[in-house]
Specification:
Distance between the termini: 23 Å
CATH topology of the largest domain: Rossmann fold
Strand content: 15-25%
Helix content: 25-40%
Number of strands: 9
Strand order of the largest sheet: 3-2-1-4-5-6-7-9-8
Shape: globular
Structural class: alpha/beta
Length: 249
């Protein structure tokens, strides 16, 4: 579960929900934050971003839960995890910086457990950030027919560290982190993105980011530059290739 937690570290996750999940979040419901870590500040920020919704923070460390209750008495925080707690119908399950140290099978189990919590059509965001939250990537997993389906892999940066596509290599979700090598889907994507960036890069990172995505989208229909102004790159799941994200899906 998350250990180091800083204010704003999960802004990319919350920003995505605000931008892309308006229909899902149009009516009040439950948002679950798994493993809030040493401080519940990011769980509190989730509740502030979506004040019409109930937010539940789950953490296995009882001492952290007690500390969170003292720091944020208005929050609903409990000792537990997705597999040890009774599922409650949730619109969103957020799993950030939790699976980094897990094996691939154990990380995949998180997605299965998230499916038990989600309402049909609900979304799980699972991924990682750097320590400050300047660079992030996460799966968008939608519950359909009782299972979660990968809709996209989202990359986001606030440009505080400048920009290069290779910045995302260290914050990929657990299922992809060791797959960045020639011939894999994620390796090819980052190589093509880096090539596009080299052709358009300038002194300022944000215009270079936008221009690189526009160029990349000319050769890859599965990459969307639509949210580039917010620092987001969206890698859409190819409909004909459900396992295209990784050679070991």
């Amino acid at each position: 579960m998350r250990a180091r937690t800083r204010p704003g570290r999960l802004h990319a996750f919350d920003g995505w929900l605000a931008l892309e999940e308006r229909a899902l979040l149009s009516a009040p419901g439950l948002l679950v934050d798994l493993g809030f870590g040493a401080s519940a500040i990011t769980t509190f920020e989730l509740s502030q971003a979506f004040p019409a919704h109930q937010v539940l923070g789950l953490e296995l460390d009882a001492a952290r839960v007690e500390a969170a209750r003292r720091e944020f008495p208005q929050l609903d925080v409990r000792v537990g995890s997705l597999d040890s707690s009774s599922p409650t119908a949730a619109l969103v399950v957020r799993i950030a910086n939790v699976a980094r140290g897990m094996t691939k099978p154990r990380a995949a189990e998180l997605h299965t457990h998230a499916a038990r919590w989600l309402v049909e059509g609900g979304v799980c965001l699972e991924g990682s950030t750097d320590v400050e939250g300047h660079v992030s990537s996460f799966w968008v997993l939608r519950k359909r027919g009782g299972e979660v389906v990968r809709e996209a892999l989202v990359f986001q940066t606030d440009f505080a560290r400048g920009f290069s596509p290779w910045l995302f290599r260290d914050v990929l979700p657990r299922a992809l982190r060791r797959d960045v090598r020639p011939g894999t889907a994620i390796g090819t994507l980052l190589e093509q993105w880096a090539d596009a960036w080299q052709l358009v890069r300038g002194a300022e990172p944000e215009p270079s980011f936008r221009a690189s995505l526009e160029r990349l989208s000319l050769v890859r229909a599965d990459v969307s530059p639509r949210l580039a102004s917010g620092g987001y790159c969206v890698w859409l799941t190819p409909p004909s290739e459900p396992g295209a994200f990784t050679s070991e899906s």
